[in-house]
Amino acid sequence: MKTWSLKVKVGAYAALLTVISLAAGISIVMGILYYNQLAELDEELGGEVKEMIWDFQHLASAPQDPRAAITGEMIPMTLRDHYLVIRGPEGQILYRSPNLLDLSPGGETGTRYTMRIGRKNCRLGVVLEGGYQVTIGSSLSAIERFQRDLRRSLLIALPVVGLVVFVGGHLLGRRAVAPVAGLSDAAERISATSPKERLPLPQSGDEIARLTEVLNRSFDRLQTSYESATRFSADASHQLKTPIAILRAGLDHLAGEKGLTPSQLSEVSVLRQQTRRLTALIEDLLLLAQADAGRLQLESAELDLKPMIEAALDDLQTLVLERGITVEKELPGELLTLGDGRRVRLVLQNLIENAAKYTEENGFVRVRAFHESDWAVVRIGNSGGTITPDDRERIFERFRRGSAVGENVRGYGLGLNIARELVRAHGGELKLSSADEGWTEFEFRLPMVPFDPRI
User: Does pTM top 0.90 for this prediction?
Assistant: First the structure.
């Protein structure tokens, strides 16, 4: 799922908030304006009724009796396009304008309302003046046209305003997060190989500067803890090698002594096997400690991976001889790369042993190697249990074993981590390339061009 950058979010949120605020404010203003226009129209209609009744009372041609019928000629020219109903003292209709058709709108004196006449919305009011009850109305076409034009103009203006605010917010957001972007770039450079790198301290003295100070102090503490842990791991692994070597030599000597009973010889054999496993574990821990400390030394030379793979496959055939496992291989005539032969053999050994351990009875293992652009690629796959999605990245963690691993499968969970560290030290990468149902395949690739080994 693609995520937006912070500066884009700032611009988008600012534009959205501005458009929503403007739309809400303009809606309120348009409502207030509409009702003010209605009030002005009501006042105007009331004034026209007063003028008309004044004419009825003062002009010689006007009716003197408020009960007498009123003809169209008596209506002022300015009101002949209006809607008019004039009633006498007893409520009788004295005049109804032709544009009302069969309608006779009325109501209580002083009421103001809107109704539809024909195809138009009209504003009507009931006024009592000089003994006459006059219902007068006018079309709302002009007001509605004004509202419609205003609404159309605002619909055109709002996107423009939103765009301007978005661009402005984006620029402001970019300026605001520029120090954060610099901190991110600096933080990327802090790693196990360069633990002394620190974030540049801004001179602004604001919250970002305060955060930078806190982070730098945290990095100081992390560096101290990391160096202490790495030093302890390397020292402990190194110091353990001597007593284990002495213990192993003593057991080897004891195994050659005469007079031991079969049960004693069996017990000594078990102890020798456990010391070999302990020696291998200590060597693995020492290797990881060197990698963590950035002191892993590689003796780079031109290598042909094909004979190395074939030697590893010979060992694999021995490991799976009694389990009916089929071994397939697809190898080129040669597969040249640059690297440390001893370390590359260890990578192959770890991956091949993993394939042997996790392949079920009568299953099969397939090893393929080929060139791909500037890379030498090796893929080692085996049939067997499926690696769950949760385990597909975590299996590379130290002392991590997949949840599907049985109790009878030996190991400490260091093989894949060591293999990945060694491949990365060569400038390559190790990954789980396939984890389909019943099939697991790992791929590692090494560069075929000169590189700077990690020292």
Answer: no
